[in-house]
Write the structure tokens for this entry.
Amino acid sequence: MTGSGFAWRSHGAYRTASNVRRFMDRHGLPDYASLLARANGDVAWFWQAALEDLGVAWYRPFDRVMDDSRGIAWTRWFLGGRTNIVLNCLDRHATGPRAERPAVVCESEDGAVRSLGYAELHAAVSRFAAGLRALGVGPGDRVGLYLPIGVEAVVALFACLKLGAVAVPTFSGFGAEALAARLADAEAKVLCTADGGRRRGRPVPTKAEADRAVAMAPSVRTVVVARRTGDHVPWTPGRDVWFEDVGRDAADRLTTEPLDAEAWAMILYTSGTTGRPKGTIATHAGCLAQVAKEIAYYFDLRPDDRLFWLTDIGWMMGPWELIGTAFFGATVVLYDGAPDFPDPDRLLALVERHRPTHFGISPTAVRMLMRAGDDGPARRDLSSLRVLASSGEPWDPASWEWFFDRVGRRRLPIINFSGGTELMGGLVAPLPIMDLKPCSVGGPGLGMDVDIVDDAGRPVREGIGHLVCRKPAPSMTKGFLGDPARYLETYFGRWPDVWYHGDWASRDADGQWFLHGRSDDTIKVAGKRTGPAEVESALVAHEAVSEAAAVGVPDPVKGEAIVCFVVLRAGTSLDDALRTALADRVAAALGKTHRPADVRAVPTLPKTRSGKILRGAIRRRYLGEDPGDLSSIEDPAALAAIPSREVRTT
């Protein structure tokens, strides 16, 4: 799945005038190797130097960078310091040269656009925060956010942070049971939701699902409802209140709460297949440190830039992009709707309209664009773009090359970074000063001492191993909410004091790093391990296939056998000849041992709204087992279309 040669060579301002180059020059670091050695060899030095370089604001400066005396799992950061995300993201931009610059631009599926400048956003956040305070919300109280991504979600998130309340962002497509589990686990006092939404032109009953969830979450006392569709919704007097009425008569300015550096900012829930939801805890200073570092040094964002990343408020990337762009006084472009509705190239049309400089998208969404044909990017003006970005899953070379060639015109880097909700950021990422190969994730994140190791925990220099982190980072979760033992077992149970991330990774002879999928997705055929991404890359390289998913199923001889599900391009059907050709292609790429036992055609693959393929659910559906927690699935019909092992399809 990795490219053999360099596709993009850093040049011009990427190499000489980027934010990370400024940091390197400031500290006498001549090249990438010296930067990594200093940043990851002395993480306390790096984080202090980075926060000074980035201009993080404090009510009271910290006395000490970190205290890891209790081990990496429980490291404390920026001791004695007091700050607030809103101090850094809104308060300092509300007056002066950035006051009238757009902070947020949001397009809805129906084409309606709303925009707020920094002064307007600051005023709206102040009023809403005052309204929340009048509803009894104070520092430490939890507020659930069950909102489509848009202006109301931005206002509600920053209002919580301004008060010192803890925001609990949730996926706007959750059903009632999944939402209730998170509200109850977090003991949310207030839920912010909407009257409804639209997805592919069809109504989404957001308020009805919220009502069902609140009935199962007794801690919720107030439901704040934003008008998004104007549809009539059920109403509970004394509990429900319109979003626009919260703080309606409050002043446009409200003092932002000075908070301890380790004060909780958000409870973010990780995806999972079974069991109690895992609530991860992000802090004010930890968020600021990690997100500002990443968006400045990896993505080279500037105050006059515009960032568009297709995501949802309930995924880590939603708060990440809001906090990151606002920290620098830049503009975030949001889209609330299906990425291929009403036209397959809807996202490219949005880029043409709103002129972002940064465009973030998952590999799965790129494959959706590819199905629309190569002429989609050609007929759009994409000249505003300076940086392409991706996250969430491994690339296949064909899709990476298409994105690089057709959307980036072979002139833009693809900053492919990967981490997780529990990190509020990434473990690996390229820098704009680096040359890049197809599918590369660059190298270790700065200030994080990331490594690749074998089953015994020994470093792997060339070959596939486990992605780990040997030193703490400010944004690492403060455990799992109410379950510290599960946190320790999940991330530190394999090797003491080493963060085990659960991804397969490799580095090549040129020092380029690559991801190979989740270790829990690993397929082991006749004792030989492979990631599904290797199989899927071989399949989508065939001209008939636009998307693919590979899973391992029990086999009495080999232990596991590979079963593949493919989405075919228009006008193609899966006959015996094509099925054989696809199996042959996988065998040619990975060896005869890995020849698929079965190849099935499906109309679409079940995914989360952020574009991750739900391989575990696919496997269980195929085997006729309980599919597990489907709370994050975008289209349940996609999973229902997965055939069982006993049913033969063409």
User: Anything to note?
Assistant: Residues 419 and 433 are 21 Å apart (CA to CA).
